[in-house]
Design brief:
With about 200 residues, this protein is mostly helical. The protein contains seven helices and no strands.
């Protein structure tokens, strides 16, 4: 891959990945029942509405989940992976592999969204507890469903909540050990693994 192709791959990957995060964030916000009137929620809705509107006519919600945004995230991930492979190696993989790799990529990004939300929540709780910043509010709403099971198991240690430590460990174990193993089993190329 020459420098021009590498630069093109980097720019395309960055822009498409940013939009992919917004699409998946919209699914996560609906999943955790985050505040719809939060300015960041409104941004995610407005940014994804043009592409989701036609998909919603065909793909119904399932058990209250917005399956159209999840499907859009998988399609965007598949297109990005296919484009990267085409620009890097000059080949397009078969569709079943591309869909499986895209599912792994979306799952990995899903875990990263929870990871980042917990980081924001922890930092805000240290430097500005009780703040009503829109980003802090969303980070709390996204993190709470992940932290709740750990809070039920781990006792409160004199007002100190250590449940985020165990949630971070669980996500890191999945991301560092199970996801690479899964990617290797389905033959995901390294160039695609680096995308996620």
């Amino acid at each position: 891959m020459n420098a021009l192709t590498g630069a093109a791959v980097f720019v395309i990957q960055s822009l498409v990945s940013f939009y992919l995060i917004i699409v998946l964030l919209r699914f996560v916000l609906q999943l955790v029942k985050a505040n719809f009137y939060n300015p960041l929620s409104q941004f995610a809705v407005r940014a994804t509405h043009p592409l989701l509107k036609p998909i919603r006519r065909v793909v119904p919600s399932l058990m209250g989940l917005d399956m159209s945004s999840l499907l859009l995230a998988i399609v965007i991930q598949a297109l990005l992976m296919g484009l990267v492979l085409m620009l890097t190696y000059g080949l397009i993989p078969s569709y079943p592999y591309l869909i499986i790799w895209s599912l792994i990529g979306v799952l990995s990004l899903f875990l990263k969204i929870f990871w980042v939300a917990m980081i924001i929540m922890v930092i805000v709780s240290w430097i500005a507890p009780g703040t009503h910043n829109p980003a802090a509010e969303l980070a709390y709403q996204i993190s709470e469903p992940v932290l709740a099971p750990f809070r039920r198991i781990i006792p409160n240690l004199g007002g100190m909540d250590i449940s985020p430590i165990f949630a971070f460990l669980a996500i890191q174990v999945i991301q560092s050990y199970f996801m690479p193993e899964l990617a290797a089993r389905v033959g995901m190329p390294d160039v695609l693994w680096r995308l996620i």
